[in-house]
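Obj.: predict assembly geometry.
Materials: sequence records (below).
Method: joint structure prediction, all chains together.
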Amino acid sequence: MLVVMKRQATKDEVHQVVQAIERAGYVARVIEGGERVAIGILQNLGPVDPTPFLHLPGVKDAIPVTKPYKLVSREFSPADTLITVGDCRVGGDHFMLIAGPCAVESEEQALTIAREVKRDGARFFRGGAYKPRTSPYSFQGLGEEGLRILARVREETGLYIVTEALDHEICDLVEECADIIQIGARNMQNFSLLKRAGRARKPILLKRGLAATIQELLMAAEYIISEGNPQVILCERGVRTFADHSRNTLDLSAIPVVRKESPLPIIVDPSHACGRRDQVIPMSRAAVAAGAQGLMVEVHHEPHKALSDGPQALFPIQFEELVRGILPLLTESQRAELHPEPR
Ligand code: PEP
Ligand code: MN
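Observations (raw structure tokens):
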């Protein structure tokens, strides 16, 4: 249930409604809209009777919320969520470009790739210090040393850092280093990690699970927001299907569905969706054309030597081609956010 206040409602009237909601045993969440304030009623187990709230001063209407998710729904917050990272804005009409290797392997590797992707227009650098690997014998990431290297990349290039928090225990360390904390596909329903992310003061990049529906993705985001962190960026990264011509199947229809259902930004990771570098450029263009508000792309200067996900990593020259290919699909102001330098 959403209690919508009149345009001219006072702070005191809003406060009275909040108190009435709390007296009825629910949790109230005030949502400041551009034109008017709405108050969401949370933690109701069944339908809420709007009668006690409708007659309160300043109340315009009470609207039942038809979806299981609330804080992430457009019904609750009609306007696009905007997230600020340094001098970058994410969401709405903005476009974010994240690029970098799957894993941080050394300072030289990370800095080499960071300089390349920066020149081509990326404002965010990705790289895992803690890697979720299918095999325990595969490279697990450099851990704390990887975080130190990422901090060095930011210092040297000015790129903002996106890196994964693999579990609840290392979240403190990752939060200190990262500008955006990534929660990977395998952890999309790790509820203790989601709750911890909800207490973080950094934005969260939440990747869709390997076999998660959009509703499950939005419910996972609801966990984060309900703990107090509204800065969530969703990421479509392909889902498992019978297809074996690509690592996963990029679900492009997730983009318009999420954009209709939720004000949260949605970006696309074509690298993990495709798993093969020859598919990454066309699928990036498709994602942008479908309305993705950003891309996250794996790039490596020596993919044959990469310690993880080499086959899907673009060579820097291919990343430049990718950027050239999406520029015509962006608005003028989005192009200005990228400003690639000529090679
Ligand atoms: C990643 O982005 O590094 C990653 C492991 O991706 P995913 O969680 O989508 O598999
Ligand atoms: Mn990877």
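Conclusions so far: The chain has a mean pLDDT of 95.
To do: check interface contacts against the pulldown list.
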